[in-house]
Structure formats: C-alpha cells, structure tokens
Design goal:
Layout lengths: L1 H6 L1 H17 L9 H4 L1 H25 L4 H12 L4 H9 L4 H27 L11 H25 L1 H28 L5 H4 L1 H24 L4 H12 L3 H11 L7 H34 L1
Length: 295
C-alpha cells in the first residue's frame, strides 16, 4: 500500500491542492476585490508583509541560526507560499476583517505564480546539492494549473450555480483535508516522516519562526495604527499559510523516488509541522479575540 503512495505521491499532493482551491474559489466573487480600492492602506500593508517582510525575516532567521539542509529549505518554502483558505475562515471566527483577509489571500495567491519561484531561488539555492537546478518554470506552471485554474473554476461555479456553490466548496475543502490525512498516513508508512531524525531543535526552530512572523506583524500593524479587525486579518494571513501548495512543490522537486528524497523528507515534515502549529495558533487567536470582545 505504501509503495503505491510513493509512486503516486505527486498526484496526492496535486489533488489536495486542486480541491482546496476549488473550495476557496466557490466562495469568491469579483466584488470581493473591491476592498483594494476601499481599504488600500490595510491591503497594501498586508501584501507587503506577506511578499516582502516574511521572506526577509526568514532569510535573516536562516542565516542568524546558521540553518542548512532540509530544514532551511522547509523554512524558505513556508515563507514563499501565500495565506490559505483556512486563514479566511479563522479571521471570520476571530471577528476580524474577513473581506480584507479574502482580498489579501486572493492577491498573494495570484502573485505567488511569480513570487514563489523567485523567493525560493533567493533563499535556498545555496543549500541545495551541487547538481540541483531550481525548476522555476515547473513551479510556476504547477501553481497556474493546480492553484490558479481551480480557483477561477470555483469562482465560475459560484457565478453559474450559486445555490450549489456552498455545498461544492464544503465538499472540496473536506476532500482536501481527507487527502492531507492520506498524505500523512502514506508518508508515515513509507518512512518519510521520522520525528526522531527530525529532532527537537528543528521543531523549536519552526515554532520560533512562527513567533517571529507574529511579533513582526504586530509591530508593523501597530506602527501603522491599523484597526483591530484589520490587524487580526493580517495576522491570520501571516500565520495560517497555504501549506497545501508547499506540499505540492515539495513532492514535485523532491519526490520520494529521487536521490534528494531524504532532503524532501525533512521539508515535508517541516511543512506538516507548521501546518499543525498554525491551526493551534489560529485557534488560540480566535479564543483570545472572542475573550476580548466579551470582556
């Protein structure tokens, strides 16, 4: 069974991303983008944090702690991917600016067609094997085919069959979660996820990076005196990232059957660990905001 997973790992990764983006697209309309004009300050700051500040912080983090190998690649991949659909849901439950969250997610998702390959090349090229070449064109095409096209298809579903769009969205997102669970089980069974070899130090590094993102975001949003609802939305975008995309890119450039599989194992563990931590952090943020609202 696990040999089957290894053989088709890439398609597991592609399926979970396509389903997630179909689900997100079925909740969006072109009018959601009008917030760019209505709230240019918050949108601009949120996008700037995502596309500029986060990669810069990650670069400094990697070099400050002299991080190399798979963990460096994993951290860089986390920094290069945009926010995910879950950030919009968490923003809603935390009583943040949901429209702002959706707008930032949508814009950074489109932008990552160009930004993700560039950020990866700048951050991790020196940590890769000597014979490795960053497949920039391949990454860009996969983002287009597995992320942007399903997003547009979902939006078209909402426009064409609005009364079924919610069910389509819910079904796709649940399907994506199911495939993620299958990826975890398949990776564990195939030996791709090894907690002992990953090490406690690397776990602490990922926790520290997430804390760095959150602290930096708090400083910037307070410096620009953004409303609390906008701050919450941007914080969710920074913390709750599209790990689905990261899993696809990892499966593409470090397949389990390649000579760089060991490197890919560390990257995959980094992504899944960050994904689990971001869910815990997002839940804690929701509880904190609801407590503030009630008190």
């Amino acid at each position: 069974m696990f040999s089957f997973y290894i053989e088709y790992e890439y398609w597991f990764a592609a399926t979970q991303l396509i389903l997630a983006m179909l689900g997100m697209g079925a909740t969006l309309t072109p009018s959601d983008f009008k917030d760019i004009l209505l709230e240019p300050k918050s949108v601009s700051i949120g996008i700037g944090i995502q596309l500029m500040l986060i990669p810069i912080l990650t670069y400094l983090f990697i070099h400050s702690f002299d991080i190399t190998g798979g963990i460096a690649v994993g951290l860089a991949l986390i920094a290069s991917i945009p926010g995910g659909t879950v950030s919009n849901i968490f923003t809603h439950f935390a009583k943040g600016n949901t429209a702002l969250s959706i707008t930032i997610t949508a814009i950074t998702t489109v932008a990552c067609l160009l930004t993700t390959p560039v950020i990866l090349s700048l951050l991790i090229q020196q940590y890769m094997p000597n014979n490795f070449e960053m497949p920039t064109a391949k990454i860009a095409s996969e983002i287009g085919l597995c992320l942007l096209l399903p997003l547009v298809a979902g939006m078209l579903c909402l426009k064409a069959i609005p009364k079924y769009a919610e069910n389509i969205s819910n079904g796709c997102i649940r399907g994506s979660i199911l495939v993620i669970v299958m990826i975890v089980i398949g990776s564990l069974g195939a030996g791709r996820l090894d907690l002992k070899s990953f090490g406690l130090n690397n776990i602490l590094l990922i926790i520290a990076l997430m804390a760095t993102f959150s602290i930096a975001n708090t400083i910037v949003t307070r410096l620009f005196k953004l409303a609390q609802a906008d701050t919450t939305a941007i914080d969710m975008e920074v913390i709750v990232r599209n790990v689905n995309l990261g899993i696809l890119i990892n499966a593409s450039i470090f397949p389990a059957t390649s000579e760089n599989a060991a490197l890919g194992n560390t990257v995959l563990f980094s992504l899944l660990l960050f994904g689990a931590l971001q869910l815990a952090a997002g839940t804690a943020m929701i509880a904190r905001q609801r407590f503030k609202t009630q008190s």
